[in-house]
Amino acid sequence: xxxxxxxxxxxxxxxxxxxxxxxxxxxxxxxxxxxxxxxxxxxxxxxxxxxxxxxxxxxxxxxxxxxxx
Length: 69
Prior knowledge:
By secondary structure, this protein is an all-alpha fold. The chain has helices at 2-15, 20-39, 41-59.
């Protein structure tokens, strides 16, 4: 009986589409950031700075470009 319940839950997970829209919007936003970075060099530097800051925050290291660092 538990095998039947496990199989039923697995099928429900495969059919679940919640969160799909959010992922599509995130992919589209990423595409727009990449496209604008390639077409506008001054935007590419800004994008690089933002991503570098995010990486530093996630790694727990201080941002070297922050004032007073």
